[in-house]
Give the backbone structure.
Amino acid sequence: METTEKSFLDIPNPREEVDALNPYSAPLEGRRNLLRLDFNENTIGPSPCVIEALSKISRDEISIYPEYSGLREKVVETLIKQNSSVNINSSEVGIFNGVDAAINAIFHAYGNSNDLMLTTSPTFGYYTPCAQMRGMRIISIPYEGKNYQYPFSQICELIEQKNPKILLICNPNNPTGTRLSPERIIEICKISSKTLVVVDELYEAFTGDSVLPLVTFQKVPNLVVLRSLSKTAGLAGLRIGFAISNSTVINIVNRVTGPYDVNSFAVVAAFAALKDQSYIDSYVNKVLEARKWLRNTLEKFYVKHHIDGGNYFLLWPKSNPEYIEEKLKSSGILIRNMDKKKNLKGSIRVSIGTIEQMKRFWSIFQVIDEV
Ligand SMILES: Cc1ncc(COP(=O)(O)O)c(C=O)c1O
């Protein structure tokens, strides 16, 4: 038996790629009762209709495996109601245990060892481990300039030259807020039918630009759009998200997920949340109002910041981000320290909630950072 520090037990070795992975280390514990501006979640909770529907869940719904009938149709109906140019059908929607699970399944279905995953940096942290665990090669292109522009020309060139299997575009990007127009996404999709272009639209409802109204999946078959009920509808704890693509891609990706991976509570909550779209719209409007207030305030006080798409922004405090993070936490407010992220040295990311919540954040931040 090989006795290294990592594998001292006499058990089978994991796959090499998995052994090499660092465990995901987000600070996810002990967050209840604090003002959580660290994970871009909904800061006021889901619609009362969701709570009511969950409280009425029957014994049967708990004791039998979940049923999904009608949910894909409801997603389609909601997307078309939001924008009448959306042209999709229910066979083009896949239901997943959060968008995280959709991302993992896409990599599982399409990512061969040594295939290339192309993305940008900094971006959402889950794309890279999903590629690494399949032994894929990874190229991450930095956002450009002080406004973090999408590196469009470089990405197009790399698709032509290197033939990536998967291109991951987070639009708007977490954490830079960078927005890429739907027209440019379609241009990218057309470069090579061999590249699956996955557009993570988790935050597009806040300030973003969905590609959905501009495409049909028959004409742009290598495009996958990801949507979730975590951030807008406040269902992060229940885990439900959607992949939208042509029916062949959805069928393939569904093959690598368990038949009951999304639980009954999530399904009941999703129906209730989608029925109460006005609640989601009103929450989004509250965030947009708070965003406007924040932008004015940060400009007025000459605080270095970057606000673009999404329900979050970057801020460069005068003090060390770790100190700010600790001090805010001891005042009951969580934010995300971005100091160690490439190109974001010295920054923190703050999620945007309601105007009252942002005023609370600001009044404490001002004292800590002596603004
Ligand atoms: C860009 C992005 N994509 C996906 C996710 C995960 O979404 P879900 O909660 O639906 O798994 C997150 C969560 O923070 C995210 O920021």
